[in-house]
Amino acid sequence: MRYFLIAGEASGDLHATRLIEQLKIQDPEAQLNYYYHPELAYMGYVAVIMHLRKILNGIKACKKEIINWKPDCIILIDYPGFNLKIANFVRKNTDIPVFYYISPKIWAWKERRIKEIHRNITAILSILPFEKDWFEQHNYHNVRYVGNPSAEEIDRFLKENNTDSTTFRKQHGLDERPIIAILPGSRKQEIKLNLEHMLKAASHYSMDYQIVLAAAPTIEDTLLHGITAGYPIKIIKDATYQTLQYSTAALVTSGTATLETALLGVPQVVCYRTHFQHITNILRHIVLKIKYVSLVNLILQRGLVEELLISDATPQNIQKELERILPGGDKRDDILTGYQQMRKILGKYNTAEIAARHIISLM
Fold this sequence. Notes:
alpha/beta; Rossmann fold; 2 domains; six-stranded parallel sheet; 12 strands; elongated
């Protein structure tokens, strides 16, 4: 069969790569066309408007590729702003089935997109256990939970990582003090808005702890050094899992990083600021359909980790909550116990293998 996969961000690329491997194993005659477009993954209305022509050209090119290549199915991976437009085009112009792997988080916002899912998506392969119930409550029943790839990646890392704490510290010029990790996000906008507030909070503990910024490899050094200048911090790139593995606590922006931090057993405070704080603070109560934003709390359906959002994410508030999760803090043990409960809910799956098998069986 001919499989056409579409992804738009680095995390989606990793999941796509794993899925492609499994499709090749389970369908030895598989032909694959992978349309990966990270240069089109813009965040926020302003960024989208500024780059609208580039995005529209990317959508046009993708549509043309689908028509010319004539795949047996389309597999969309995350990034709904782009992928749902492709799904709508495919339904109107072809009879090709469309599968969504790592589905749009319409349970959080833009709930109206459920109509598009009903019209355009053949089946959803979900990586979050609560999504199946949500979609079924909205009368979409072609959903299967296939396990969580982050849980699988962390398990693989813990099994294969041969670097102990002493070696890790020596490699990165760290001393023996315990580590407070800072994960400020993978986008420039997130880093500019969040990092300095996190640094101000964490630097109060720099006598007894080492402050380590776990940076994505794609982030420019000039941006990081410009913000961190004058703060007692060590920047480590492309070693987030190892940094977390040997950390005592973490400050994390919202997203997949909150789940990864929990899976590695590190108590955390979730911090997330945006532009136009006061307006956003009002709009979030209107637009957001969920009580929590971190994946940890969403999976557990309770407020285990503290979420300091928008105007609440001040250095003072972050420092106060960080104190509570450090050794001796009143929230630390509860968080560690909650992480164990979350891991049981996620279960143990070979996510890409199950997803590939399900797609082939549906075909």
